Amino acid sequence: MANIKSAIKRAQISERNRLRNKAYKSAVKTLMKKYFQAVENYASNPSEESKETISQTMSAAYSKIDKAVKKGVYHRNNGARKKARLAKALKKVETAQSN
Q1: 88 HSE (CA, 13 A, CB side)
Q2: Whole-angstrom Cα distance, residue 64 to residue 44?
Q3: Closest CA to 56 of 88, 90, 92, 98
Q4: pLDDT tens digit string along 63-92?
Q5: Is the whole model's pTM more than 0.90, yes or no?
Q6: How far apart, in whole angstroms, are the C-alpha atoms of residue 28 and residue 23?
Q7: Is 98 a residue whose pLDDT tops 80?
Q8: Which of 1, 30, 43, 79 could join 69 via S-S bond, C-beta 3.0 to 4.6 A?
Q9: Is 45 helix (H, G, I), strand (E, B) or coil?
């Protein structure tokens, strides 16, 4: 354990940041899983209600990813990659249904 006051403070700050980062990452993963589940449900049973669910979960996931990038939890390219992955999943289902 650190003895110097500034080192003690840095340890406290890094622990606080670690917990914040962990919370953001966990929330993003959860929202992404919910989104992929919603897309899967839409693929098996397309309806306006499931389409609305997709748009709501996508909006929530995008918002949380953007906030995580803004806070520095994720690099902006990582955030962009995650958002592109979400969009790609929906596009894949929509093109399969239009054919």
Answers
A1: 6
A2: 27
A3: 90
A4: 999 999 999 999 999 999 999 999 999 999
A5: no
A6: 9
A7: no
A8: 79
A9: coil
- Distances in Å between the alpha carbon of 99 and those of 40, 43, 50, 86, 96? 17, 13, 20, 21, 6
Residue 25 has a CB neighbour count (10 Å cut-off) of 14
Q: How far lies 50's CA from each of 8, 39, 40, in Å?
A: 51, 8, 10
User: d(Cα 54, Cα 58) in Å, to the nearest integer?
Assistant: 6
Residue 1 has pLDDT above 80, yes or no: no
Helices and strands: H and E segment counts in the chain: 3, 0
DSSP state of 72: T
Domains of the chain (ranges; CATH) run 27-98 (1.20.58)
> Is there a contact between 4 and 16 (Cβ–Cβ < 8 Å)?
no
